[in-house]
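Internal ticket #5521
Category: modeling
Description: The requester needs a full-assembly model to guide mutagenesis choices. All entity lines are attached below as received. Residue total reported by intake: 678.
Assigned to: D.W.
Attached entities:
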Amino acid sequence: MAIEKSKRGGATLAEVAAAAGVSKMTASRVLRNAPGFSNQTRDKVMLEVQRLGYVPNRIAAAFGSDQTSTLVGVCVPRLTSDLFGSVLDSIDHTLSKFGYQTMIGTHEQSPEVEETWLRAILAWRPAGVILSGRTHTRGTIEILRAQSIPVVEVWNLNTSPLDVSVGFNHYDCGHEMGSFVLSKGYENIAYVGAETNAEGMGKVRRQGFEKALQNAKREFLTKEILTDRPSFYAGYYGTENVLNRTNDVDAIYYQDDTMAVGGLFYCKSKGLNVADDIGIAGWGGMEIASVLPERLTTTIVTTRALGKAAAEALVARVRNEPVQDVTVATTRLVPGNTI
Amino acid sequence: MAIEKSKRGGATLAEVAAAAGVSKMTASRVLRNAPGFSNQTRDKVMLEVQRLGYVPNRIAAAFGSDQTSTLVGVCVPRLTSDLFGSVLDSIDHTLSKFGYQTMIGTHEQSPEVEETWLRAILAWRPAGVILSGRTHTRGTIEILRAQSIPVVEVWNLNTSPLDVSVGFNHYDCGHEMGSFVLSKGYENIAYVGAETNAEGMGKVRRQGFEKALQNAKREFLTKEILTDRPSFYAGYYGTENVLNRTNDVDAIYYQDDTMAVGGLFYCKSKGLNVADDIGIAGWGGMEIASVLPERLTTTIVTTRALGKAAAEALVARVRNEPVQDVTVATTRLVPGNTI
DNA sequence: ATGAAAGCGCTAACAC
DNA sequence: GTGTTAGCGCTTTCAT
């Protein structure tokens, strides 16, 4: 009987070993660069690997050995966001540098969707998972504990994390911006955001801002939170709503820079003088700001550093190396000329 | 001897079966909803599944059965792009709807990086892969053929695809825009793009545009292709370079809308009258355009439809259902008032 | 409707 | 430096 090829294309380790005239174990050692083979053996094996186009079967490897894979699950709110995209990109680069593969998912700010995703992912016995949900379902928490799998919570700063947290201090961002806007003499401030049912961390920034207002015995004059995702147009439209509702507003704090830029254009389209007639502040330090005639007052956040730190923390946890429970990624309020 | 728990957390099928007082096979049938069990049996099994917090082990399942997983590898140029992000988001939603998990990678327009990624991914015996590289290395092509795995090439339209291709006709987009710009009386047209060493499909659009120029016995007055990624600032800076180099330019075709918007702001900052002094055309139909005072002349592309079509084509291929070799996703030139 | 046995491709543990 | 044995958790095949 000829050597039976496995169903789909690839040769198996056994075939490579047979062709090279060594045992499976020896071939395995060569391929994993584990100690215990001569140069001559290596050459023989590698020759056959080349010749047969052998592709290792990690499913079998993960199954046969330690029961965990080099897969890492990463779930972000959505993929269509400069900020999350940048974090994910950075996570993926870092993970792949360490030899892990990234499995993605999106939760659109729904803890239930996150849980559904998680259950599917855990079936792959990932080395760890990176979550970005602000809150998790009870089911998520239980299943994570039961599997005792490394978890990094990213984006938000969680002072009592499931496992490890790497994030921005959104509350402080909001609070700092609130104080700044007040210090510039603005008094009648509105908020424009999106994602009514699950605002994610925008809500926390708003709360930080509100705290600053409270400290000055003030509050938001009005809040406009659209049932939409943050976007340029959502900012434009939200601003229109706010300004139609009241003439008293002299500044607006936006959920993020896309919305702030949208608002900026609305104001300009109405002939308003930005900063003088109406102050505008955003969050995120997005790239669009680099080409605007105005320098947008915003909070710059280090998304790539955040992603890298999160991935590195996960790898460290997987390897049982010491990891800080909570890591704060840098944010910096950058005054422009829109406030 | 007590039942030995597997290393990490989870109960095994055997444990669930034992607890429910049935065989592994019966429990397996219940969990996969395969025919051959009574309602009573199902209830017993599901009760234990709940009680033990059983998470199926897909690694073992994939290994034990057909040697392919429900994993799908998707490699895009980068994650920090509205357009690619939207395609990926749509792919992931569609795949997960069909029960597949998405493994991602980025190639940054390098075929070698794509190949490296592919080798790592194929080791997981994915059900299929979705690639977006314009060109592939010889190694990529060989390994894909050898594994005889379903492949969908997305983004670019490939008339002789490895397997299945779903994409935009970038050449036609460029050609159509070229004809349009000429029809508006512009004569001295420049091109501003990015990613010198590997332009991706921007290059094809440029060639389509060039063809339209050639048909009118013309050519680009000058081309500025930055070593950078396309971005707002790259467009701003590229435009500055072009206009510093020559005064004769009366229109610029940009690699995409981000660059076009960057260019637009540069022109405005110099007091140029857009459309009259200088025409501007982009590609992509990006969201920012919705809030600009100018309506950007651009080509709208259906990224979500593209992603959905690509994922559906992959699933069909995996299931051995008939699939069109080549599918063209919709693009539409939308005249604004910047040309 | 249910179960028993075999085996998927690899690696850990232990010989030699 | 190399080979042998056993087994990971599941599904397939074949009985019953």
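Resolution: model delivered.
Comment from assignee: Chain B is about 45% helix and 15% strand.
Ticket closed.
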